[in-house]
Structures are given as C-alpha cells and as structure tokens.
Design goal:
4-stranded mixed sheet, H3K4_H4K5_MeTrfase, alpha+beta, globular, 3-stranded antiparallel sheet
Length: 302
C-alpha cells in the first residue's frame, strides 16, 4: 500500500510538472511572443533553457568555465589548453569545438577584437568551430530575428570575417569543411547575435561570490559572458515585465514569473535596466534594439 501511494504521488508530481505552461504565437504589434497557457503564480519557474552558443567574457577566460560559464572556485581545474572547465562533463561537451580551436592560431583575431572592444565575434568564432566539429548546424540561428545593421557596422563585419576566414585557412582546414563560412554567413550570425545575445550575470551563491561580483561590477566586468538561446529570444520587452530571466550557477537560463499571470497573458521580460528614466530607456531601445516601446510605463512617460 505504501509503495502504491508513493508511485501515485510520484506520477502526480510528474503530471503536475508537465510541459512548460507557455506557447509561442504571433502578437498584434511585436511579431512572435510567448504566452501563458494556464494561470501562473508569482515566483513560479516557467522553464529553463540551455544556450545555442555562448562564450566567456574575454577578460575572464581563465576565471569561468569555458563551456558553461560557471565561476571558478579555488580548486578549479584548467585544461591542457589553459582554459578552465568546471567538470569532466563540460570538458567532454566542449571537446568538439575546443579541439578545432586548438588547431588554430587565434592571436591576430583576438588582438583585433580586443583592440576594438568587440565581444560578439568571439561567439561567431565559437559557432564556426562548433559547425566544423559537427556539434551544431550552420543555420541554427536562422530562426531568430536579426538586428538592423548600419553601413559602418557591415564594413566592420566584413573586416572581421576576412580575418576569421584567413585564420582558418592558415590553419590548413580543407575547403570542404568550411564551405559554410562565407561573408553572408558571418554577417547573418552577427546580426542575430547582436540583438538576441543575453549578458550573463550569475546570482551569487555565497558571501565570497557576492564580494567577487561586487568587485567585478566596480571594474565594469560583472558579466561572465554572453549567450544566445532559442525560446528566451522569443520573449518581447516590457519596462514593467511580468517575467524575468536569471542565471544561478551557469549559462542555463531560468525564466520565472515576477507576479501572478493570467492564462493567455503575454509573458514579457525587460531587455534593459528598468530603473532608468523614460528618455534613457527610449534611446537605448531605439539604438540597441530598433524599436519604440509602447508599454504602460512608456505610454505614461514614467
């Protein structure tokens, strides 16, 4: 009888968890959006998501896991290539693209990005290595919306592509494995990364981590890296959101409800610092994301 009750309880718990209470559908004015399929309680975990592609902040390459972006503890282990992996599982997961990376001299590419303060080309580089290793499809980001690119930005991207392509060519990679690596592919990837990448800031899990995060914030490097996701990229913006995204230990994103949400209500996150005034939010959203916000706060110029 006890075993039967336990099995029933386990089955009920599994049924209760079920699929995420969300659906993707078209909105009236903002393209795709994510909607609740049932009432959601404040604080409820809606779903989690693993990144399609991620990369540590360039200044923290040896301080966070090269795969999952988990911060390095005192006994962290570095790989033979000098980068830190938090576990054997992460090292194994990264083996494909990391093996490709280790065959290439990246000094010129890294110097170029470092001198210009660029971060997204590192993600394009990693995705290219993932495609070469067979860990990803060349078109895996095509479903995401691209950013609008200015002429100056396109010229910069063309220069970055030529450097990336020549770096692979000098390393002796055969043309048949880099056929996908064209100027159009590179620009297509960067256009999607620029508007869909999330800045990963881990929640402190200890007092020591909290002090480390505070120190990083002072030095303007509180982010451990950047990542692009599938489903989280479908969430639209609101300056007074009902949902937020958090990262607890690594780059796995967790979407949680900020308040009670009704069935059918659109789930929205805030793309920027919601504490800024109306004019600042308006300018950042227009320049960085290419749209004007018509949420309740913006309509009231709050």
């Amino acid at each position: 009888m006890f075993l039967r009750r336990r099995l029933l309880s386990t089955a009920a718990a599994a049924a209760a968890r079920g699929p995420p209470p969300i659906r993707v559908a078209l909105t009236e004015h903002a393209g795709r959006g994510v909607f609740a399929t049932r009432p959601v309680s404040a604080g409820e975990l809606l779903h989690s998501a693993q990144p399609l592609v991620s990369h540590p902040s360039p200044s923290l390459l040896h301080e966070v896991c090269y795969n999952c972006l988990r911060r390095k503890p005192g006994d962290g282990r570095a790989s033979s290539g000098g980068y830190y992996f938090c576990s054997d599982a992460c090292r194994e997961h990264a083996k494909g693209f990391h093996d490709v990376e280790k065959k290439v001299d990246w000094s010129s590419f890294h110097d170029h990005c470092s001198s210009r303060g660029l971060k997204y080309p590192y993600m394009a580089k990693r995705l290219a290595c993932m495609v070469i290793s067979g860990a990803a499809n060349a078109d895996c980001l095509d479903i995401l919306l691209p950013a609008r690119l200015h002429r100056g930005t396109l010229i910069e991207m063309e220069e970055e592509f030529e450097l990336l392509e020549s770096t692979f060519r000098k390393a002796g990679f055969q043309e048949e494995v880099t056929t996908f690596l064209t100027k159009d592919w590179y620009i297509n990837v960067l256009a999607r990364v620029r508007i869909n990448a999330f800045r990963i800031e881990l929640v402190a899990s200890s007092y020591e981590d909290l002090l480390s995060s505070a120190a990083a914030s002072v030095s303007c490097d509180s982010s451990v890296g950047n990542a692009v996701y599938m489903l989280p990229s479908f969430y639209n913006h609101d300056c007074d959101p009902n949902t937020h995204i958090v990262w607890l230990e690594n780059a796995d994103a967790k979407l949680k409800a900020l308040r009670d949400i009704e069935e059918g209500e659109e789930l929205r996150i805030c793309y920027i610092d919601a504490s800024m005034d109306y004019e600042a939010r308006k300018n950042i959203l227009a320049d960085g994301f290419g749209f004007e916000c018509y949420c309740f706060r913006c309509l009231n110029r709050d």
